Amino acid sequence: MADSNKKWYVLRAVSGKEAKVKEYIETDVKLRGLTDKVSQVLIPTEKVVQVRNGKRIVKEKSYLPGYVLVEAELVGDIAYMLRNTPNVLGFLGGMEQPTPIRQAEINRILGTVDELQEISDESLLEFSVGEVVKVNAGPFSGFSGVIEEVNAGRKTLKVMVKIFGRSTPVDLGYMQVDKE
Questions:
Q1: CB 91, CB 83: distance < 8 Å
Q2: What is the distance between the alpha carbons of residues 177 and 172, in angstroms, rounded to a whole number?
Q3: What residue ranges define each of the domains in the chain, with the CATH number in brackets?
Q4: pTM for this structure?
Q5: How confident is the prediction along the chain (180 residues), in pLDDT tens digits per residue?
Q6: Which stretches does DSSP call E strand in the chain?
Q7: Average pLDDT of the chain?
Q8: Residue 57, CB half-sphere, CA atoms under 13 Å: how many?
Q9: Are the beta carbons of 40 and 63 closer than 8 angstroms?
Q10: Measured between alpha carbons, how far is 71 from 8 in angstroms, rounded to an integer?
Q11: Cα(16)–Cα(169) distance, rounded to whole angstroms?
């Protein structure tokens, strides 16, 4: 019954300070004992895979920069507390009477965030037998070769590289080669 009165609201925050805003709100809610009125504070993020110096780095990037989602029941001073949190610019939809987001929109936003987090590297890196690749790391860096085998489970490739005029099989990881 208590959850039926809670609605999702969007707080505008200083871009880049979303995590600090979330931390401030969660701390403030615990100190004031308002956990029954403010249940969730979310920052929509997505995981981004980057390759730097041949190493795979997974970073979290804000999906909606400058916005923090809050599920709350705005009774009493809760709207005032949220609005006056450091690095918060105000509610989206008005300062006096904040407008809640429709449930369909919050489902779409949260669904998109979940969907983006589930995207794996395999969809980004697909190799096939017979494809020509260039080695970008390791002792064979700079050499080109043809893929003989693809092991998707271990994310490795067997590449035939020509060394001194002879084809030599070399086992390489997905991150050690680039498509040509």
A1: yes
A2: 7
A3: 2-119 (3.30.70.940), 125-179 (2.30.30.30)
A4: 0.59
A5: 345 688 999 999 998 899 999 999 999 999 999 889 999 999 988 778 777 777 778 888 888 889 999 999 988 888 889 999 999 998 988 767 788 998 888 887 777 655 555 544 444 568 889 999 999 888 888 899 999 999 888 888 999 999 888 999 999 988 888 888
A6: 7-13, 38-42, 45-52, 55-62, 67-72, 88-91, 132-135, 144-151, 156-163, 166-173, 177-179
A7: 84
A8: 9
A9: no
A10: 4
A11: 47
Structure-token pair, residue 34: 């308002």
Tokens 């369909």 belong to: 104
For residue 48, what are its two tokens? 């981004």
Q: Give the Cα separation of 161 and 163 in Å (integer).
A: 6
pLDDT digits (tens, 9 = 90+) for 112-135: 655 555 544 444 568 889 999 999
Amino acid at 27: T
Residue 73 CA to residue 79 CA, distance in Å, equals 9
d(CA 68, CA 93): 14
DSSP 75-113: -TTHHHHHHTSTTEEEETT-SSSPPPPPHHHHHHHHHHH
Instruction: Summarize pLDDT for 158-171 with one digit per residue, the tens.
Output: 999 998 889 999 99
Residue whose pair of structure tokens reads 């590297």 in the numeric block: 121
